[in-house]
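// run 5 | inverse folding | seed 20
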């Protein structure tokens, strides 16, 4: 099993977190501790969840973690869009971030597909 920090999805997610952290320092004061904090905390929780998914011994548990990751990614996307609409993130930065989240989503869906298949194979052999 690969270490979580070697996973491409982890590397992309960490890059996303760094970029979000850089951008939220420039948020308007009214939004820095609401939207900005939600984005930062959401990004950190996302990274921790990748670790949990990678460490899960049972494939059904891993599948559940990956599904949760996909849900949390949608949450992050909603906060990013709201931040853009409220002029805390420029359209260019929003486009950059959605490109990254799109890449992460593709990787998560691939991981989910593979893990689901392995989980079904494990259940057949039991």
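// decoded
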């Amino acid at each position: 099993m690969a270490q979580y920090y070697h996973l491409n999805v982890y590397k992309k997610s960490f890059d996303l977190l760094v970029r979000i952290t850089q951008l939220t320092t420039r948020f308007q004061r009214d939004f820095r501790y609401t939207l900005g904090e939600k984005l930062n905390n959401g990004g950190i929780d996302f990274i921790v969840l990748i670790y949990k998914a990678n460490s899960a011994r049972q494939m059904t548990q891993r599948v559940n973690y990956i599904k949760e990751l996909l849900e949390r990614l949608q949450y992050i996307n909603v906060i990013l869009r709201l931040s853009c609409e409220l002029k805390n993130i420029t359209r260019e930065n929003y486009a950059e971030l959605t490109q990254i989240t799109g890449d992460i989503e593709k990787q998560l869906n691939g991981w989910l597909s593979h893990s689901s298949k392995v989980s079904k194979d494990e259940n057949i052999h039991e």
